[in-house]
C-alpha cells in the first residue's frame, strides 16, 4: 500500500496524508449513499403509501448531504483548527441542501416588504389564478378561479404555491392599485341588419350599466398614480365596429370589477337579447354558406 502511495506522490504530487483523506472521504460518501439506498428499500417494502415514501425520500435528501458535509469536513479540517473555513463549508452545504426552503423564505420576506400581493388580492402567478387566502413562511395559498370555469369564477380548489414562485414567475394583480379591468363583449349581427341602430342600442346599454363606475374609477386612478404610472385618456365605455366573414362585429368595451365580470356580462347580455328581439331590422349572425346558381348570375 505504501508503494502505491509513493507512486501516486511521485506521479501527481499528492502526499500520503492527502491520499488517505481522499480515500476516507470517498468511503464516507459511498457508505452514506448505501445507507440511503437501504433505508429507502426498507420503506418501499413496508408501505405503498406515496405520501410516506415521498416524506422519507425528502428527509433523507436533507439529512444525508448534511451528514456527509460534517464528516468529510471533519477529515479535511483536523480538530476544527480552521473553524471559519469549516463554518463556510457547512453554510455552503446547507445552502445547497436547503436551497428550496431558503428561496421560499426569501420569497416570504419579498412578499412582506415589496407587497406584490396581499391577503384578499386576486392575482395570477404563472398559469394559476385565484384569490390570496393565506401567506405563510414557505408558501402562499389561493382559491382558484377560471381554469375549466368561465369568466373568472371560483373552481372551489385551493392551490398552495411556494413563495419562491415570486422570483420565477410573473405576477398579475387584479386588485392592487387599480381595482377595475377592461372587459369586452362581442356581438355579431348580419350584414343586412341596421348596424348603426344596433351600435346605438349597445352604447345605451353599457352607458346605463356603467353609469356609477366612472367616478369611482377616476378616484382610484388618482390614488394609484401615487405609486404607479397609470394613465387612461378615456374611461367611458365604447363600442367598436369590425367587419368579419359572417357579419358585422360590435365589441362593447367597458370597465368592471374583476369579481363582477360574469355578473356584468349576464346583465348586459340579457338586456341585449331583449332589445334586439324588439327590433325587426337587427338579427344575430352566425357562420353561413351561400350557394348561387349559374343562371342567377346571367
Give an overview in words:
The chain has 298 residues and is an alpha+beta fold. It folds into three domains: 96 residues, no CATH class; 58 residues, SH3 type barrels (Roll); 97 residues, Alpha-Beta Plaits (2-Layer Sandwich). The protein is 50% helix and 19% strand. It contains nine helices and eight strands. The strands form two sheets. A five-stranded antiparallel β-sheet has the order 4-3-2-1-5. Strand 7 and strand 8 form a beta hairpin. Helix 2 runs antiparallel to helix 3. It starts with a helix and ends in a 21-residue tail after the last helix. About 2% of the residues have low confidence.
What's the helix and strand layout?
Elements: H1 2-12, H2 16-46, H3 50-76, H4 83-97, H5 99-114, E1 122-125, E2 128-135, E3 139-145, E4 154-162, H6 165-168, E5 171-173, E6 181-189, H7 195-209, H8 213-224, E7 238-244, E8 247-256, H9 261-277
Antiparallel strand pairs: 1-2, 1-5, 2-3, 3-4, 6-8, 7-8
Helix pairs in contact: 2-3, 3-4, 7-9
Question: What labels would you give this structure?
Answer:
three-stranded antiparallel sheet, 298 residues, 3 domains, SH3 type barrels, elongated, 9 helices, 8 strands, alpha+beta
At a glance:
This protein is of the alpha+beta class and 298 residues long. It has nine helices and eight strands.
Helical content (DSSP H or I, runs of 4+): 40-55%
Write the H/E string, N to C: HHHHHEEEEHEEHHEEH
**Main sheet characteristics:** 5 strands, antiparallel
CATH classification class of the largest domain: Alpha Beta
From the spread of the alpha carbons, the general shape counts as elongated
What would you call the quaternary organization? single chain
Mean pLDDT: 80
Q: Which fold does the CATH topology of the largest domain refer to? A: Alpha-Beta Plaits
Could you tell me the number of beta strands?
Answer: 8
